[in-house]
Design goal:
Layout: H1 5-14, H2 21-27, H3 42-63, H4 69-80, H5 82-91, H6 102-106, H7 113-131, H8 133-144, H9 146-150, H10 158-168, E1 175-182, E2 189-195, E3 201-206, H11 209-227
Antiparallel strand pairs: 1-2, 2-3
Helix pairs in contact: 2-7, 3-4, 3-7, 3-8, 5-7, 7-8, 10-11
């Protein structure tokens, strides 16, 4: 199988030349464009998530040989969460080579965080299947680069950080309330409020409930910091 010039350029951005290029094509094939003869990337995504986790866990252990599990876990989560995977995918312009159905293309699929995060995990699995664990590890460490060394000791996501802050002060866990949903079905915008027992709250909007909740939690954490 011969790759297109566009995919050969993407190979160069990955730093891996495929012996089995069909693996790369499958890794970049979203479910919206599959046929009986063209399988999507979901099985590769499943595998790539595990390969990424093993590489990151090993890298963090080697980087800090004295860190306790309680320190390592939030660092690990920060490096493997969907937001970080999507950032990596954007840096190598993965969206430009995704194979999407027409509806996904029209709804901005090439920029969607979930699609990009899933696709980079599928690409990791494709490299693993093509070149072995060493090739996948080298690519991951190269793409994640300084993020591994610079990951914050307290790299919790905002919702977790806000919940821990509230519980440490005897408050109930924050409540997340959907205030509004606007936009078409294929590109909704959610407005969410993060609320504490003591009446403090913050609002944020996002293309998914999860994103809006995270942003609302971060906004409330910022306000709390200003209040202290």
């Amino acid at each position: 199988m011969r790759l297109s010039a566009e995919l050969e350029s993407f190979e160069a951005r990955l730093g891996h030349r495929f012996e089995r290029p069909e693996l790369l094509v499958r890794a970049l094939t979203h479910g919206s464009v599959t046929t009986p003869a063209r399988k999507d990337n979901q099985r590769l995504e499943f595998l790539g998530d595990r390969v990424l986790g093993l590489v990151m866990a090993t890298a963090l252990l080697e980087q800090d040989r004295e860190a306790a599990e309680g320190q390592l876990a939030p660092r690990f989560n920060a490096l493997v969460r969907k937001e970080t995977c999507a950032e990596i995918a954007r840096e190598i312009d993965l969206g430009a080579v995704l194979k999407l159905g027409r509806s996904e293309m029209l709804s901005g699929g090439r920029r969607k965080q979930a699609l990009l995060g899933d696709a980079i995990e599928a690409v990791i699995a494709a490299v693993y299947r093509d070149g072995g664990f060493g090739a996948a590890r080298d690519m991951i460490l190269r793409l994640w680069g300084a993020r591994i060394a610079e990951v914050d000791d307290d790299a919790r996501d905002p919702k977790t950080a806000l919940q821990e802050w509230a519980q440490a002060r005897g408050l109930s866990p924050p409540a997340y309330v959907e205030l509004d949903r606007s936009g078409p079905d294929h590109a909704p915008v959610f407005t969410i409020a993060a609320r504490l027992d003591d009446g403090r709250e913050a609002q944020a909007s996002g293309s998914s409930k999860r994103r809006a909740e995270q942003d609302a939690a971060q906004e409330l954490l910022t306000r709390i910091g200003q209040d202290i």
